Amino acid sequence: MALRIVEYAGLSDVGRQREANEDSYVLAAPVFIVADGMGGARAGEVASRTAAEVFEGAADGPEETPEQRLTRLTQEANRRIFELSQSDASRRGMGTTLTAAMVSPAGVSVGHVGDSRAYRLRDGSLEQLTHDHSLVAELERSGQLTAEAAEHHPQRSIITRALGPEPDVEVDAHTHATRPGDVYLLCSDGLTSMVSDGEIESIARGSKALSEAAEGLVRAANQSGGRDNITVVLFRIDDDGREPSADDTLSGSETIHRGLTADDVNSAVAEQERTGTTTATATATATAAPSRRQGRSGGGSRGGLRRALGLLVGLLAFAAIGAGVWLGARAVYFLGTDDGGLVTIYRGVPYELPLGIDLYSPQYVSSVPARTIGVRRRERLLDHEWRSRADAEDLVRQLERGTLELGRAGR
What pTM, to 2 d.p., does this model score? Predict the structure, then answer.
């Protein structure tokens, strides 16, 4: 039986230190892409979205191989982004990385520009299929930097090739033979700058579904600091003939995902609050309706007074509950990470109230980067479990000394 795509998933997250998500991705089997935009005034979002739109639903060219198609579409995306940047001074110099994959009978073909990456997980082992077009990666390939030095180099984010800055771009295109069970991962550097290849392999290998793997990868990047937008796309090849389920696929305008800006989030919260209030009001009205039908002679003024008194009692109860939550939060602690990705003890509970009110505050920042902790241990240690102060301090102390046991981390 011919090999086919049997499962795929994609996820994008703004991260912990950015206000807008400039990444885009496309799930349009047999084509998948990840694009990481750059540029001021939200121009990066425009660049990555433009690249995604070029690939979404693009038709095959006549007698065109997968590599030729990927190259043609990538160069078309570059042309459109460059023209947009030339026509608008606020978008001058904008660009995007792009890593695209296309599945065909020949295998999985990859088109690549920039430092977003493509990986293959085969028989439990992860292999990087692309070479980063970055200053540090080129120094490492030429032998001028060691792999360890490259990982922590201050200029590791400087890329040497992108879509948009120039009218023409060189595209790396190559095809890889595939086997049943192979899983392919496309991702922006918001993942790879926060999570090691070993951790990516462990998360992907240990996940029962690709949607679970996507969530685990994004969570790991955020736990390590989340300094950039994080986008992951995964797809699996097999020969069992199972079609992708509705939960795995997107269609139409939903194919392109650009993440959420801060304004999007605030609007969504406001809508949830509005909807929640409306629902509560409707429930109260339905409950009170029988007594109103039995006492119509009471008049509108008395009914209005009862409603006002009910609202006042409700507000007082809400205030009392809020005060209780705030006081209770002062008595518990949990472990998380700060903006730099260091393991941190927080006092309070890991929740936020409307209007940006946090129910937690940092109490102690350790010297341990979360990314240096094994995946299983990190997930159990940084699970936001409520702890006593003594317990939280004891865990961090053992973590700093290197004596923390896995079972202890999940207590």
Answer: 0.63
